Structure formats: C-alpha cells, structure tokens
Amino acid sequence: MSAQPFHFFSKRLLLCLLGVGFLSGLIHLESMRAGESTGPIRALMISGGCCHDYPNQNLILSEGISKRAHVAWTLVRQGGSDRAIQIPLYDDPQWAEGYDVVVHNECFGGVTDAEWLETIVKPHTEGGVPAVFIHCSLHSYRGADTDAWRSLMGARSTSHERARPLKVENLKPHHPIMKHFPPMWDTPNGELYKIEKMWPDAIPLAQAYGQDTQKDHVVAWLNHLGNARVFTTTLGHHNETMQSEIYLDMVSRGLLWAVGKLEVDGSPSSGFEAPLASQLQGRRILAGDYSKKRIAIVDESGHVSWEHPIKDIHDLHVLPNGNILFQTSWTQLLEMRPDGEIVWSYDASTMNGNQGKRVEVHAFQRLANGLTMVAESGPRRIIEVDHHGVIHKEIALKVDHPDPHRDTRMARKLDNGHYLVCHEADHTVREYDRDGKVVWEYVTGGEVYGAARLRNGHTLIGNGSGHNVLEVNSAGEIVWSLSQRELPGIELAWVTTVEELPNGHFMIGNCHAGPQQPQIIEVNRDKKVIWSFLNFDAFGNAMPCSKVF
Ligand SMILES: [Zn+2]
User: Judging by DSSP bridges, how do beta strands 228-233 and 131-134 pair with one another?
Assistant: First the structure.
C-alpha cells in the first residue's frame, strides 16, 4: 500500500490533464485488493457532461461517503458540459485498474458509439470491478445500439419527468442498504427517470410514483453482471437532494455493498469504518509558537515526542492517520508523518496563480475526501486542492478591509459544505455557502481569530483582541460568553482557537498572555476551569494554535 492514502489523480490521468497523453509505461498499476481486510477502499469517481453541477457533486459525494466509510478517492471530471464527448479516460482499456470500485456520475447522452461502449464496460463485466451508477449515468449512451451499458445497471431509461420533489418508497426495509432508509422519503427536489425496462435479475430497493406517467418507477436497485456487483440510483439531479443525510447514507451503503463490505445491520465491515477525527483521549498537546520557531507535540509533563522548526504558524491539525498537517511559514504547508517523513506539501506562494502576489495562509483543513481546504489572505479566496495541488473548488471571500496579513484567520469547512471564516481586519465572522454567498455573519467587536460551529447550531467565537469568547445563535444573539477576567486568576489575552469537545466543554487558546497565564484553557458552560496548559519552555508568548488529543 502506498504511504499516501489519498491519491487524487493517478499519474496517467494527470498526464492526460496536462495534455501529455497517456504514457502507459509510467503507470504504476496495483492489483485489486478484493480480499483486503482494512480500508481505504480505493474509489474512482467519474463525472462530466451535461446538465448537472458536477464540480460540487464530486465534493458532496466524496466527502459524504468518506464520512461514512473509509474510502480514498480519485476524482476525474472530463468532457466539460458537452453531452456527446467520448471522454479520454476510457481510451485506456485498463482505465479501472487499481480501483476497488468505480462511481459513475456522468451525463453523456449524445454518445452513440456501440463498439466503444462495449469496450468501456469490460473492466466491470469481465474484470469484475464493482460499480455505483448515479442519476444521469443511466441516461448516458442511451442512443447507442447496444445493451452493453444498460445491462450492466439492469435497466433502461431514456427520458425523465418534470422536476419536482419525489416521494420515495422503501421497497426493501430489511436489506442492509435500506435498513435505515425511512418508509417514505420526501426528497427536497427530484427528476424522476421513467424506467422503460428492468432486467429480470435486478433487485428494486426503492421507487417513486410518476405524476406524468401515472405509474411507479424504480429509483434504486441492485444488479449483478458477470462478476460485477452494481448499485444504481436515478436520484441525484439536484445538489440539495444529494447532500441530504438519507441520500448519502443510501449511496454509501450501496458502495459498501458493491465491494462486499456492508454488514447486515447496514454498517461498514470492520476495518472499513470512516476514520474518526482525533478525539480527546489523552493530554498530548500539539502546538506551534512563532516566538520559539517551533511546532511540537508534548505531553503534560513537558516531554517532547515530535517537533519541527517553523517560521510562522496560525493553524495545525492531527489527522486521523496520525500525521501532522501544519505550516512552516505563511505560504508553506506540510503533511508529515510522526517519523518525520513529508508526505504532502503545498506552496501557496507559487501555486494556482499566486506567483508575484502577496499571499498568506492562516487556515487550512484536510477534508474527509482527502482534499485540502486552504484559505488565502491576499487573493481572498478559499480553494480545495488535491494531492497534486490541483484546484477542485474555489470561492471568493468578502473582505471589507483588504490586508494580506489580516483578511482571514481560522476558517473551517462545515458538515453542510459551508465555510465558517474569521476575518480579522473586518472584525467579522462570515459563513459562506458552497457557491460563496455569505449566508450568515456576525460582527464581533474584536480582531477575531477563531470560530467553531457547535452541535447546537450556535457559533463559538474566539474574539482575538476582544479578549473574550462568545457563543452566538443564528439570530446574532449572544447566548453565552466569557469575558476577560471572568475566570478566577486567569486573564484572557488574545483569544485564538475555540473548539467544542465531545463532552461539551470548550477548549480555548489564550495567546500573548505572558508567562504566568495558561496558554490553553478547558472550561465548561458553568465557567469552571476543567484543565489548563502552561509550558513556557516548549512554547512561548506567541502560541496561537494548538490541539489537545
Ligand atoms: Zn438530471
């Protein structure tokens, strides 16, 4: 297995994207790992073509599934928005080599080349590679004079009803895929595919009634063809449907079933559960200090188990695989294994159009699908990049007082796909939706550093030079707060990171507070100090970011 669990573009695809073409001699092909007892499941997601928001759907599906099962993604989007492109991915007969499952979310209804279709299904029909088909994949290649593609799914459809929310009926409530699916699901929106034929071996899982056709149409089903196990759903035209928990649960279980890793209770087989973000299990502290020029892991007794020199730092993470994601300067990001091996790096000063610009990175985050979110001050944008630094997502940030050092502080992608961003110079926390629209903001009255969305839906704010912590509801009302001298013997200085712990306590970063004051404080809602950390030997007076794990 590779030391890098997340490999977004194979060399082959990257070369293709760069216009170099396929150089098959360079390709490292790994054999299928059907019998493996631990994840990740290596998944290839293919999207592109007409009529759907594939850039966002790639992220919704890959993040949503990886929060439910241990899946590492290669995301390939080819063909633009044209419906009649024979995408170059399939030019290579070995296109599915090295993957445990392929998710087809493509929309090429205008391609009719029967001979080409018969070759592209072979990795499934002859190679036995499991498949998940989403929505327009069923309408892709529908004019071709061959059943090669549709027999793999086990259904034929060539048209759909008008868009409207659908009532989806669970037909197999005891099947592991459908066990947690409600008896009837009202989808936020939908585009019902008219099923004209089901192959006799296909197993329907769910259906919806068609108002235009006055009959039921199957919307999710299973099929076997050759050695391949196939899950298909025609649901998924609209992003709001796709990002619902019910949809992502069903598709995740469909994928697990296809690879033979779904238990009868609907959970992933042992070893294939989603990796958990590190919980507070012990009291090891990962922290960075730019006065001591060091990032390190220490325990409560001060023993240093890992360290690395840095120049500047405002963000850091312990990843589920134990690696450390951090920055050594305002532009250089590194992912390092505990043994010191660098497994990923990103240079924001030169990548993705930043040459010659003043750019500073004050926040970044590894996402469930393996992409890395980077918030760039200066360019005033959030990007999501893959292992090769290729951008898969970009939104512009709203900044009223532009300053490359002060545009942003802590920024986090939320479970709903939104971004919560602290704008230091604007004294404002803003929430952006997937399209970059500001959907919520709060003026904090300080040079705000940190914000976290709480489980109750409120926002916890570490208010920087405001010397306080605020819990604010969606209406912008302060429902809880901690002022500068409210904790006995403690003075809040520059309040930086804030975090809600699994037990409901808050972990607060207290920077520039001097050698007598704790650098990290754990408090409960009764404002009782549960734990605190002070180590002025390992770290000094400029320790803005830390993680207790
Ligand atoms: Zn559609």
Answer: parallel
Domain assignment of residue 65, given as a range: 7-258
What is the distance in A from the centroid of ligand 1 to the CA of 403? 42
Residue 301: predicted pLDDT = 86
Segments of the chain scoring below 70 in pLDDT: 1-35, 277-281
Cα–ligand 1 centroid distance for 397 (angstroms): 30
Query: What is the CA(135)–ligand 1 centre distance, in A?
Result: 7
Evaluate whether residue 102 is within a structural domain.
yes
Q: What is the model's pLDDT at position 10?
A: 42
53 Cα to the center of ligand 1, angstroms: 10
Cα 238 to middle of ligand 1, angstroms: 7
- In the reported structure, the alpha carbon of residue 96 is separated from the centroid of ligand 1 by a whole-number distance in angstroms of 25
Task: For residue 272, tell me if it sits in a domain.
Answer: no
Cα separation values, 293 from 303, 313, 329, 346, 379, Å: 18, 9, 10, 20, 26
Say if 266 falls within a structural domain. no
Cα(525) to ligand 1 centroid in Å equals 47
Question: Cα of 236 to ligand 1 centre, how many Å?
Answer: 7
* Cα 55 to middle of ligand 1, angstroms: 15
**CA–centroid distance, residue 52 to ligand 1 (Å):** 6
The CATH number assigned to the domain holding 310 equals: 2.130.10.10
Q: What is the pLDDT of residue 227?
A: 87
Is residue 253 domain-resident? yes
What is the total count of domains within the chain? Answer: 2
Ligand 1 centre and the CA of 46: distance in Å? 16
Based on the fold, state whether residues 201 and 316 are members of the same structural domain: no
pLDDT digits (tens, 9 = 90+) for 184-215: 999 999 999 999 999 999 999 999 999 999 99
pTM: 0.86
Amino acid of residue 163: A
Indicate whether 236 and 315 sit together in one domain: no
> What is the pLDDT at residue 252?
98
Give first-to-last CA distance, the chain, whole Å.
Answer: 27
The C-alpha atoms of residue 224 and residue 154 are separated, in whole angstroms, by: 8
Q: What is the pLDDT of residues 218-264, one digit of tens each?
A: 999 999 998 899 999 999 999 999 999 999 999 999 999 999 999 99
Q: How many helices (H) and strands (E) does the chain have?
A: 7, 35
239 and 107, same domain (yes or no): yes
Listed residue (482, 491, 446) closest to 466, CA to CA: 446
